[in-house]
Prior knowledge:
The complex is a heterodimer of chains A (531) and B (436). By secondary structure, chain A is α/β, with parallel strands linked by helices. Chain A is 25% helix and 21% strand. Chain A is built from 15 helices and 24 strands. The chains are: A alpha/beta (531), B alpha/beta (436). Chains A and B meet through helix 2 of A and helix 15 and helix 16 of B.
Amino acid sequence: MPVTLTINGKKVQAADGALVIDVCREMGIEIPHFCYHPGLGPDGNCRMCQVDFVTERGAKLGISCKTTVTEGMVVDTESESAKKARASVEEMLLLNHPLDCPICDKAGECSLQNYYMEHDLQEGRQDFTRFRKEKARDIGPTLILDQERCVLCDRCVRFLRDVAHDEQLYIAGRGHEAYITTFPGQEVTSPYSLNTVDLCPVGALTAKDFRFNSATWFLKNTNSVCTTCARGCSMQVQTKKDQVYRIRPRHNPDVNGYWACDEGRVNYKFVNEKRLVTPFLRRGAEVFKCTTQEAVAELRTLLGFKPAGPADKPATRKAVVVVSATATVEEMFLFRRLASEGLHAPIFVARHIPDGVDDRLLRRADKHPNAKGAELLGIRVLDLQNGGGVADLTNALGPDGVLIAVGFNTHVEALMPVASRAYALVALSGCETALTERAHLVIPGLTFAEKDGLVVNFEGHVQQLRPALDPRGESEWRVADAVIASLHGSHPHEFLAQIRKAISDGVPAFAGIDLNKLGPTGARVQAQPVA
Amino acid sequence: MSTPNIISARFDKAGSHTLAGYKANGGYGTFEKLFRMKPDEVIDEVKKSGLRGRGGAGFPTGMKWSFIPKSTDKPKYLCVNADEGEPGTFKDRLILERDPHALLEGIVICCHAVGIKTAYIYIRGEYDFPLARLDAALKEAYAAGLVGKNIQGSGTDVDIVIHRGAGAYICGDETGLIESLEGKKGQPRPKPPFPAVIGVFGCPTVVNNVETISALPWILHNGADAYAAIGTDKSKGTMLFSISGMVERPGVYESAFGVNLWDFIAQATGGVKDGKKLKAVIPGGSSSAILTADEARNVKLDYESIAAAGSMVGSGAIMVLDEDTCVVKALEVVLRFYAHESCGQCPPCREGTYWLYEIVNRIRTGRGRPEDIDLMLSICPDMLGRTVCVLADSAAIPAASYIKKFRSEFEAYIDKANLPVRTLHPGGVNLEARAL
């Protein structure tokens, strides 16, 4: 039963039991708050979200995060008394705050700063020696704690206790001497610890990974997807110039809620390091740089085609295409087309699942974002951690086949036994790996941070990777498309949208989803009958 | 003045803390009547008596009980608040030391009325001797079948558990007490939900003060009408007052409501010590507003009259300041106490109490500035009613009232001239007892 209430003179309908602060946000009124977080619920301790509740007996201040809407409720968020109450809380919080904003990593995205601009902007009346607490305390492999900056909103404590189920922080002491700390002799080791950095409304908890790296206002945000495991959390990739600086979760109720794991957040180093930018050929011990056209010609020669022009006879050498389960749906789709129409070769998607288990919150044992996508396209997924997967690949390759390995940017060890038996190894890879060190032909590919493409998580939720950086190599899909076109004597596709359209039309699982118009939270693919 | 002794009747009887001594004075005499009554009848009787909570808030006890949901699958609990932390209050201690069985009898009455099978007594950690007396009394009562399963064949089960606090003032707040009892850090919960709906272990809970519960046997024995006949229209019955400070005979005195405040104090304690002049009276514990000598002489001692005078009866801790007592120092002690005891949840309290203390401290130590007085007065309203519990109010109310009524003393400190002569009397105003 919806109820009707009045907020700042406007009548609105809201679900019974909804919180006033949520209803206000939906109306576009952002009420300042510290302790409340939509993913954690209210706690009621920070007193920042006070608004006026007007009744016949007059207006009365109350906290909007703990108050549920009732029929006929009248709320005034902008009354003088409410604004003064919030400004007063802000002033109280700043009393013992160290005001070290110039060296604080949170500056620019700090609630305390923002609300000061919004509410107060006055000279402080504070004029006693500030109460000192511990600064820059190392509290674990990922976090640094500054107790002085803390506003004691309890979010980090509640997250670790209630969401991660791994209670590793608490508030010790009381009154103005209260402080966040770890349990004696222990560190914060939760695999979700970095969420506390996002949750921290001030600079009390900072990430070792991002500390002193960049002022936050220089970072460019790109909505993308985490490719660290089969969950595919919605992420925001934050970049400056040509480097990734930080990855943060973004809210997606269908996939990850508000959270992400630490592993996914720091899994971007390879984007910045050991990148391949030029194609090259290897002749014995010598390496020759070449252009992409020359590389395509070399590939054709390896397979027994003439170097250019439409193919007039089938390949003379056997080939196997193996695509990493980190590749996008479009890449898999085009390489399957290349394998079946151009090379008449088998195609596999390969993944290597390390020992591990799916945990209760987000993390999956399968560290590939798109094995499900391969499944939906009908490509066989080989598990290389089993001897069987390697054997299947070796058998398909035969004694002198050409192995075309696509998109193995990291963790290539499992593929090496197969690669070492191939007559020739062709690698499309964004990074230097053991594979590219022995490949006969290397075409630089892209990493997730530069790619545009779709991935499908283990639950069948399709989301779009969006390029956060300018590409440094060749888009894998363009390479596949170029080879197909060269063999057919046709023109390659110009836009990825054309490929997506073909996938929507040709793959039953994606029927009815406009892959070119996926929203920021993606879409759920149709349930597939068990094959 | 015929002061009926209700709570303190047995305080000076020999052996009053033992079961034999208690029974010799009519103890446990209400059980026969109690177990014949239906629970609702007991609640009605308590409502009719007009008994109000003696812990400080003065909420009608019968009404509090009736908020407990009648139909619930959950167990219900009683928490007896024996945390007695308000500076200046030492009345529950006497009950625990000298009349513990009255408390136990009262607990059984409350449990029968509300349908409670387990009661907790949350006793202040520093109360070693009261705890020993209470513990001994509880053992005796269990042995005699006056507490426990199927009391006197009535079918009523009441188990009583004593839980010792660890020395935090905030655990005297009812939800702070509940959190502490559950084994968590003692800090009050936002309300609603109130303890009557979600209290200890998520179950409906009654939280009552020791004195409130101890009044129940008398009410049941003599009838609600007899109790309601004492006192005023809205403040019924009697109350224990802990009188401390600059008086001849500090101590705990019982009085009916409605008497003149200063007459009662003077009569009971023999007036201001050493024949000095009265400066002020703090009527309801350190968190209440101060009354000037004139106000104290012209106000009646009951909830409504004292509220009309701008203060409160609170926990009945009356503190008397004589002409030589320094109000600035008194306020410093009060604020140091609240800054120390704030649990630290809410910024207005966590930072506000500390800020106020810092300012009054610098005034007292001769570093005050002319604008400090108005600064304090402007901070106080931002602490009133802005927090989860009333600890912030407890600091802001005295601060504002001391300054408003004795502004000249603060100004004198700031002007560094005409400093009031004397410091706090050693062993005098009981404010310093637990501070820092």
